[in-house]
Amino acid sequence: MSETTPRRVRVTSPRTVAARAQRVPPAREIDAQTLLGEVYMSSLLRSQLRLALLALAALAVLVGGIPLVFWLAPELSEVEVLAVPLPWLLLAFAVYPFLFLIGWLYVRAAERNERDFTDVLDRS
Amino acid sequence: MTAAGYSVVGVTAVFVATLAVGAYGWRFSRTTSDFFVASRTVRPGLNASAIGGEYLSAASFLGVAGLVLAFGTEMLWYPVGWTAGYLVLLVLVAAPLRRSGAYTLPDFAESRLESRGVRRLSALLVVAIGWLYLMPQFQGAGLALASTTGTGPWLGGVLVATVVVVNVLFGGMRSITFVQAFQYWLKLTALLFPLLFMAAIWFGDGAVSPASAEIGDGGGAGDSWVSPLAGTQHEVYTTYSIIIATFLGTMGLPHVVVRFYTNPDGAAARRTTLFVLGLLGLFYLLPPVYGGLGRIYAPDLVSSGRTESVVLELPARMVAGTAGDLLSALTTAGAFAAFLSTSSGLTVAVAGVISQDVMGRRFGGVRAFQAGAVVAVVVPLGLSLLTEGVGVAQAVGLAFAFAASTFCPLLVLGIWWRRLTDVGAIAGMLVGGGCAGGAVLGTLLGVAPGGWPGALLAQPAAWTVPLAFLTMVAVSLATPRRVPRHAARTMVRLHTPEAVQLDRSTPPR
């Protein structure tokens, strides 16, 4: 009787090793310049470039437009606000808070872009 | 004590304070990294004050008020452009430049384009722009000391050069950072404090508008003084050319760029730049007011052609007695803070390049840096003593147009465009620098024609900057096989936040 009893066999799933395959951290994907790493990088680069161009466009239109406006409408130079000539008011005082505002908004948005990028890498 | 006596005391105090604050920094300066980039540990607040102190040169402190007094509102484009230049720098360059991990502009050029040729050309341009900018500082110092104390015109330049060399020799960037931060606040106080008294007097006199002041010959009057467009002919072109040169030239100045390497990381570099934007805006509110008040209280400066000394003389003219002399001594002291801080920054930048690219093989580390500093100061000092007569504002304007036509395309395309090649960069810098340099030299030497060609040569930035960009892009596209091998990897390092754990080592050549 004991002769016919089959030997006990331990049954294990060969799939456990496959299921626990090594995850590749996304930072290494970027280092290795894989297709996936390329996607991560170009998305960051594109969002930062779009932001930079937006800030420059605001600067070009709102500050760079001043000479054009005064050239097309020279009588604006005569306008006085609180006894200060308009061109003087714009160029000597009003421009600076405006430049700072663009810079402040830009820094906030750029840091948000970078935080989002880091979060995506950490999560995946 | 006489008025000249007070000025001597004020200037001496600035020299002594500069050396004392510098000596405080000497104690921390040990390594090569201390000397070049203050070991990259400067916090945004301190660093922004230092950048502000370094950036506000003789042209800002004396030149702006003088130009406004003589020509009016259109000259406000210079301070506006010098501030907006920092915004462009913040948006396009600040964080990636810090993340590149390079010491100087030639370092950046070499690591991005993997070419010794680009490095050599950049080094040459850094030294050229640095000397071009140092020359008017020494000249301005000579003029300021001569007009307030009556000494020879050479003495001021020699004094400033000596103090700068001593500070740089012993402390490098570490000690210069403290000195410049201190000098920003000194300059602001030196303009603000006398202005409070002068504004009170102006209101007491009935607050006459400067635009309505009658000025004899030589200055724009009434309408043309108020107009924001430059000159009488080709005014739109000239105004936009000034805007392009100042907005884009700032990022190419060697002493501005070298400061970014002192930030701990890219995000700090951005915050520092934002701080600087605020500090510059605050400062530039003041000099135009001196120009405006000068039209009412010192109109004779326009006809005698000494408008650049309006900041130095106006307080003594408006405030009676000893108080006025003391206030004038304060603005004179502030002017010397401006000469010292800008020359210190430029000397550190130029000395860094000279020691690394010219002498690097024979001497090492700190010794080479110190020898470089001596060379960086002696040459422009000699030039400033030989060539008198080129105005402070003119020479500074040349430096901005030149920087905008050479380093601006290199930095912008290098940071944002993967396909830039070394041949393209060299061609672009040669074309841009050659045209801008040639145009303004022609104007200075007086060989420029009148009419449209004259206007194009006097303010070349509006055509040389696009030309440099176009050349760089076209030649790069024509040489696609020369795209640097590790371009993609370098771009990754420039734009990835430090929080991401990347392999940031230099790729093997």
TrEMBL record, chain A:
Domain of life from the UniProt record: Bacteria
Keyword tags: Membrane, Transmembrane, Transmembrane helix
Record-annotated membrane-spanning stretches: 51-73, 85-107
Name of protein: Uncharacterized protein
Lineage, broadest ranks: Bacteria, Bacillati, Actinomycetota, Actinomycetes, Geodermatophilales
From TrEMBL, chain B:
Pfam families cross-referenced by the UniProt entry: SSF
Superkingdom of the source species: Bacteria
Keyword Cell membrane carried by entry: yes
PROSITE patterns reported for this sequence: NA_SOLUT_SYMP_3 (PS50283)
GO terms assigned for molecular function: acetate transmembrane transporter activity; symporter activity
Record's keyword terms, sorted: Cell membrane, Membrane, Symport, Transmembrane, Transmembrane helix, Transport
Record's bilayer topology term: Multi-pass membrane protein
One CC-aspect GO term: plasma membrane
Coiled coil start-end: none
Transmembrane regions: 6-26, 46-70, 76-97, 117-134, 154-172, 184-203, 237-261, 273-293, 333-354, 366-386, 392-416, 423-448, 460-479
Compartment annotation: Cell membrane
CDD domains for this protein: SLC5sbd_u4
Gene Ontology biological process terms, A to Z: plasma membrane acetate transport
Family to which the UniProt record says this protein belongs: Belongs to the sodium:solute symporter (SSF) (TC 2.A.21) family.
Name of the protein in question: Na+(Or H+)/acetate symporter ActP
